[in-house]
Design brief:
alpha+beta, lipopolysaccharide transport protein A fold, 2 domains, 6-stranded antiparallel β-barrel, 2 helices
Length: about 210
């Protein structure tokens, strides 16, 4: 005896499920990717790999890292060989951090990069900035290399400034100035502005 054919409503339900389930899975999968790739530009750069509570128990910890995206969509990474919090109280999270052998990198939307490093530095959470001192070296993917005694970088926006006398070499030649700055102009299309100011001198070196 042959089994009775399924009712029409069962066939219709089966066809609907065959179509609806894959579509719902696709919508869910695309939503996961959209959420994971979205960037909140209002979120400040996070202290991503710094255990602040450990600094109140120990005078010094190793391998510190700060990473995130600034409000103007520049990726910023700050690293240090070691970090300490002099004067921090056990009941409070430290605000002023001392960095040993700090280095940083700015990655712009245009895929250009600026890196900087020094022997010592500090991270001031109240001022939302990191300061490098000593023999500060700055390099850009556009071919500029600079030496200066002090450099500060904001953690929430693309704003880097250096002072104390700057010596640099780049595509135009040798440059000396009192200060330099790196910003992202409002009309920039993914690039940045590297500016020298204060008694600027340029020795033009023509390409051979």
């Amino acid at each position: 005896m042959r089994p009775a054919p399924p009712a029409p409503w069962r066939l219709m339900l089966s066809q609907i499920l065959r179509l609806a389930l894959p579509l719902s899975a696709l919508v869910l999968l695309s939503t996961i990717f959209l959420v994971s790739r979205s960037i909140d530009p209002d979120r400040a750069v996070a202290l991503s790999e710094i255990d602040l509570s450990a600094l109140t128990r120990e005078p010094r910890i190793g391998t510190a890292r700060v990473a995130g995206v600034t409000q103007d969509m520049t990726a910023l990474v700050i690293e240090a060989a070691a970090i300490s919090a002099p004067g921090a109280q056990p009941q409070d999270e430290p605000v002023h951090l001392r960095l040993d052998a700090p280095s940083g990198k700015l990655s712009f939307v245009s895929n250009r990069e600026v890196t900087f490093s020094s022997t010592t530095g500090t991270l001031d959470r109240s001022e939302d900035q990191v300061a490098l001192t000593g023999d500060v070296q700055l390099h850009s993917s556009d071919g500029f290399h600079a030496h200066l005694p002090r450099l500060t970088a904001s953690l929430s926006e693309t704003r880097v400034s250096g002072d104390g006398g700057v010596r640099a070499i780049g595509p135009p030649g040798e440059i000396s100035a009192e200060t330099l700055s790196i910003t992202v102009p409002q009309d920039a299309t993914g690039g940045y502005l590297l500016a020298f100011s204060g008694n600027v001198r340029l020795i033009y070196l023509p390409e051979e």
